[in-house]
Amino acid sequence: MRTRITDLLGIRVPIIAGGLQWLSDANYVAAAVNAGSMGFITAASFPEINDLREEIQKCRDLTDGKPFGVNVSMLPKLVEGEKTQEVFDLIVEENVACVETSGRNPQPYLPQLKEAGIKVIHKVPAVKYALKAQSIGVDAVTVVGAECGGHPGMEMVGTMVQAAVAGRSLDIPLIIGGGIGSGEQLVAALALGADGVIIGTRFLVAKEIWAHEGYKQRLLEAGETETTLVLQSLRNTARALRNETTEAVQGIESEAPGDLQKLMPYISGKVGKIAYETGDWSKGLLAVGQSVAFADAIEPLADIIAKLEREAQAAMARLEKINTPVSDFQK
Predict the structure, then answer these.
(1) How far apart are CA 287 and CA 239, in angstroms?
(2) What is the pLDDT of residues 215-274, one digit of tens each?
(3) What is the SS3 assignment for the chain?
(4) Rounded to whole angstroms, how far apart are CA atoms 95 and 67?
């Protein structure tokens, strides 16, 4: 499957392993890259710049120099003490191939990245933001639908509609995400005008993800109805695995909408990190999308990607059959 995304990033399959808070380290990203995909080390997982530098260098060793990326998730507004500029300086210094940005407009950093020859993919929850990103000169955009784990935005437009609207509206390469976890969906996204898909939840059960096996086992048991939405009162909607924390957060939001002080003990990222470390999935705001329904085994990431490819090939074969002239089909 050759698309504008495979050409842009120099990858074999049009599948992006999206940045995962706390979990996208060198081992995971290298596994994605070595399987023919593209992956992103999550900069926010490494608060100290030197730790991020070491992770980038480790990933370069594990990929034998093949291109990989860094995810830079920025807060909606610049805040005091934010290290975004330092992170981009490091990315340029380390000659990283591409970055995945999200959260706010990356325009102030584009000249620096463009001059260094770094590809920029900006991730957004609605087509209107993708059009803005295209206008400022990013190389590609990722548009995620309401089914995605993490932050699907406030409009909550489903992935099928997002893909079709974005495919008709954009000129630059388009990646679609949100509930994507099968090869059939990859083919559907390409048919709708996308150049590739981004996958997060489906890859959470990969062996290279360092999270506790107890957490992964819970994902294997979960179905598409076992996620829920929280934080609408903060205008920062999040989709997470249903557990004690999401129930508590929904209770607070019902009684005291927008009360960040009351919510913070439950929604702090450090609480979620403990869940990954211990396997106690009952606590923490654990970003999980509806594509958890497709998680069926704890296995190497390369095996999951190979399975997606086989599913895509089977879907293409079904389409070929549909396209067969009636006279030939009846034979």
Answers:
(1) 6
(2) 999 999 999 999 999 999 998 899 999 999 999 999 999 999 999 999 999 988 888 899
(3) CCCHHHHHHCCCCCEEECCCCCCCCHHHHHHHHHCCCEEEEEHHHCCCHHHHHHHHHHHHHHCCCCCCEEEEECCCCCCCCCCHHHHHHHHHHCCCCEEEEECCCCHHHHHHHHHCCCEEEEEECCHHHHHHHHHHCCCEEEEECCCCCECCCCCCCCHHHHHHHHHHHCCCCEEEECCCCCHHHHHHHHHCCCCEEEECHHHHHECCCCCCHHHHHHHHHCCCCCEEEECHHHCCCEEEECCHHHHHHHHHHHHCCCCHHHHHHHHCHHHHHHHHHHCCCCCCCCECCHHHHHCCCCECHHHHHHHHHHHHHHHHHHHHHHCCCHHHHHC
(4) 10
Collect all residues with Cβ–Cβ distance below 8 Å to 275 and sequence separation of at least 6.
Answer: 212, 215, 281, 282, 283, 284, 286
- Amino acid letter for position 50: N
- Judging by DSSP bridges, how do beta strands 98-102 and 119-124 pair with one another? parallel
- What residue segments make up the domains of the chain, in order of their start? 4-207, 213-278
Q: pLDDT by residue (tens digit) across 231-248?
A: 999 988 999 999 999 999
pTM comes to 0.93
Contact indicator for 61, 94 with CB cutoff of 8 Å: no
In contact, 62 and 26? CB cutoff 8 Å:
yes
**Strand pairing class (238-241; 227-230):** antiparallel
Question: For the packed helices 159-169 and 183-191, what is the interaxial angle rounded to 10 degrees?
Answer: 40
Its CATH architecture, for the domain 4-207, is Alpha-Beta Barrel (3.20)
d(CA 308, CA 188) in angstroms, rounded, equals 13
Name the residue among 232, 218, 195 with its Cα closest to residue 282.
218
Residue with tokens 């107890």: 214
